[in-house]
Design goal:
Elements: E1 5-9, H1 41-52, E2 58-61, H2 71-81, E3 85-88, H3 93-102, E4 111-115, E5 118-119, E6 123-124, H4 137-146, E7 161-165, H5 173-182, E8 190-193, E9 197-200, E10 207-218, H6 225-235, H7 244-248, E11 260-273, H8 287-295, H9 298-305, E12 315-321, E13 324-339, E14 361-362
Parallel strand pairs: 2-3, 2-4, 4-7, 7-8
Antiparallel strand pairs: 1-11, 5-6, 8-14, 9-10, 10-13, 11-13, 12-13
Helix pairs in contact: 4-5
Length: about 375
């Protein structure tokens, strides 16, 4: 199959959902010994200044809204109202690092927020290099190895926090470790992300987090909300508080903490050139035949398995153009979101505090 596989597109990284509360690993930053026999006031003052002196927070809005979407505009408004310096137009890691280098001064960066709409199945929308591949652990490693990314200057320290507001990112530890490599400097910054879904511009909070749950079906072939509610209940047996049928039929948080559902889709497309091969182009008459053919080819199944979505959850179509076979698949995902609510006192969302290790994982 490798001899006539022309190209495979829209491969994203797999991120496996984790438990609601993620503990944080200590970053392996070497610290200087602080054993002091005689106090030196000048040294103490210098050390204290180095701890607290950092630049004001900056925010990269690393994407733009399409159609009726408001994720990025809501995030921009949220951070502007907090008085943060918001930077637009940097849609790749290359541009972000370059901007940080070019706008550096003698004070290290403090908080660097990177806003990028994503989920564990579709992956990040952030590019590696300008007009390059979308970021996956594989594509990012290739860019680092080839030297395509600029090197971060010594403008960060171990108090610097690179905060990714990208839903589902933290479950992919390999990708997080690779992102940390991309921000390597003499003193390593902290790379932070949340295991929860990130929402900006909610009806009751400008910014809050929600626990996501997922269920899939072949696009345009929904089995119905009743069957889907049974399927998702079986998938998440530990969740006893959610009425899945009601949640799947609700598309907004009508009161604080109400569970609701968002929809998205994942397309897959392969093209096979039979012009320079002796193999006969297959003819398919059903989805089942296409799936059976895909299962016979390890490289295709390897790509599908990266999504962690069963093959039969995609709607499959095959077409031909001259000597080229085109196979397309599409699945519809329903993401049920359960907002994180304070367990005591007045009913309100839990504040997304990046210092809270239950909400944000430190890498």
């Amino acid at each position: 199959m490798r001899t006539f596989l022309k190209k495979s597109v829209f491969v994203t990284s797999l991120i496996v959902l984790s438990s609601p509360f993620i503990s944080c690993d200590n970053n392996n930053v070497k610290k200087e010994n602080k054993d002091v026999v005689i106090a030196d006031n000048n040294a103490i003052e210098k050390e204290e200044n180095s701890k607290v002196a950092s630049r004001n927070p900056i925010v990269f809005i690393a994407g733009f809204d399409k159609g009726n979407e408001t994720f990025y505009s809501n995030a921009r408004t949220y951070f502007q109202e907090k008085g943060f310096n918001v930077i637009d137009g940097q849609y790749s890691l290359e541009e972000i690092i370059t901007w940080m280098n070019q706008n550096a001064n003698n004070i290290p960066y403090g908080e660097v927020h990177i806003v990028n709409q994503s989920n564990p199945y579709k992956g990040m929308n952030l590019e590696t290099t300008i007009r390059g591949n979308k970021i996956t652990s594989k594509s990012l490693k290739e860019s680092i190895t080839k030297g395509d990314l600029p090197t971060l200057k010594n403008i960060v320290n171990n108090n610097t926090k690179i905060v990714f507001h990208a839903s589902g990112l933290v479950e992919n530890q390999e990708l997080l470790n690779t992102l940390k490599e991309a921000f390597t400097a003499d003193i390593l910054p902290n790379v932070i992300a949340s295991p929860y879904h990130t929402i900006f511009g909610g009806k009751f909070s400008d910014h809050y987090l929600a626990q996501p749950y997922y269920v899939f079906y072949p696009t345009s072939k929904s089995p119905g909300k009743t069957d889907l509610s049974k399927e998702i209940a079986k998938k998440y047996p530990e969740e006893k508080e959610i009425n899945w049928f009601e949640a799947l039929n609700n598309d907004e948080e009508r009161y604080i903490g109400e569970v609701y559902t968002e929809q998205f889709s994942i397309p897959v497309k392969w093209e096979f050139d039979y012009h320079h091969t002796d193999e006969e182009m297959p003819i398919f008459t059903s989805d089942k035949e296409i799936m059976e053919w895909i299962e016979l080819h390890e490289e295709l199944m390897a790509e599908i398995n990266q999504y962690n979505i069963p093959l039969n959850k995609f709607r499959w179509r095959a077409s031909t153009k001259n000597s080229t076979l085109v196979i397309k698949g599409r699945t519809t995902g329903l993401c049920v979101l359960k907002p994180l609510i304070r367990p005591y006192g007045e009913l309100q969302h839990i504040k997304p505090d990046t210092n809270n290790k239950r909400l944000y994982a430190l890498k």
